[in-house]
Amino acid sequence: MKKTAFAIVALLTFMLPHLSLARITCGPLVGDHMVLQQQTDVRLWGWTDRGAGTTITLRTSWHKGKLKVKSDAAGRWEFRIPTPKASFEPQTVTISDGHEKQTLSDVLFGEVWLASGQSNMEMPLHGFANCPVENSAQHILESIRYKGRLHFSTVAFSPHPEEVDTVTAAWQDCMPQTARDFCAAAYFFGIRLTEALGCPVGVINSSLGATRVEGWTPRDIVAAYPGENLTSDAYLGAHLVRPAYNVDRALPSVFYNGMIHPLEPYTIRGFLWYQAEANINSPQVYAERFVRMVGSWRQRWGLGDLPFYYVEICPYDYYWARDKATAALMREAQFQAGEMLPRMGMVCTNDLVNKDYEYWQIHPCMKKEVGDRLCLWALGDTYGIRGIDYRYPVYRSMEVETTQRGKQVRLTFDNAEDGFNRNVGIKGFEMCGPDSVWHEASAGISGSQVTVFCQQVPEPVAVRYAFKSFQPGNLKANSGLPVIPFRTDKFPR
To answer: Rounded to two decimals, what is the model's pTM?
Structure first.
């Protein structure tokens, strides 16, 4: 008897370490507190250590019966399951391989968006050091109102030289201790969306400061770009660098590989993007590279032309730029990108800086307005809510006309049918003649048109508005949305 008992103990001692290796691992974002996109077929996926051919079962609190799939050669399994209409009632998901069972709780149905970019998207609700978010203490306090309504996930720093399948990205419920560290622009987007739609919202943040658009673009695309090194020691060792601030933020593709690609099976409604500061010296190629990145993300998600709403870089001195026109040319490139693909929308930020002290603040404090304006695009464009103003006044054409005081320029705009917010004190306009020398100009309103006059320019040739690194304007549509900076010329600089 003693020998038999000893043998059993010895056998168990041998087996337990091996049994402990057998487990179910869910894919990124598949976990407690997740928000699943409502009224569609969502993908739930992961891996089992038991290898190919393992039967995986799925039970949910909203779907009758049990679903079964077999794991593939890599142990990967995947389910596609329909989701009902949005609901605040928490649900559960149970996954089993016949030996181990995992139950995911506090699952909601609602609207899911992915936010990405560089530091202005990464910037948390409590701000960076010496870079505050306006009224952050009040917003953090009020975040408790959205418990059970807004869930969010921050994707861990994880650059990689190859496309990888997993990354740490746990969901959290909204409350002061979690909201304070979540990205501010996406937080404000989320709370405004749940208020407007009356349903749960899930927002995923995968962003990192000082990164270029090339860093978030798949390798097969970046490989065709001149000057991009995909074989350097820094590139090949990007996944070995810790902590985050030691990694070369200018590396191509590594942030896509490790921080976007693993998320692609997760069903979302659309994208939010705030980036371009790191590309400030290459406005001539930015629009094309940006839209190629957008197209690649859409293609890899496989959900059609998912809406992509992005934020114009803010007024700032950009001291490292080649010249003072570079930032203006980048904003122009950002606007042009929105005309190159369907379902794109740009948030203008020309008015979202304090002109007295944010001249050298690349992280302006008005993140609530950024989130609100992103949400306006979503509500008007994606969700089709009528009556919402979300498009900005955009320059269309100019005409030189002769008046009693001399020649002036009459400008026509799109999206300004109801006119503008002021008739006096308009700032931000410049005019030049055949000599291409720019002079500050005065402007007035004539219905939905703007007239521009400058006594120093008897023969007007071109007009610019807020077309400098730092030149906040004050002209807005009646809706309160600002005129997008523009130029009527195509001079080299």
So the answer is: 0.94
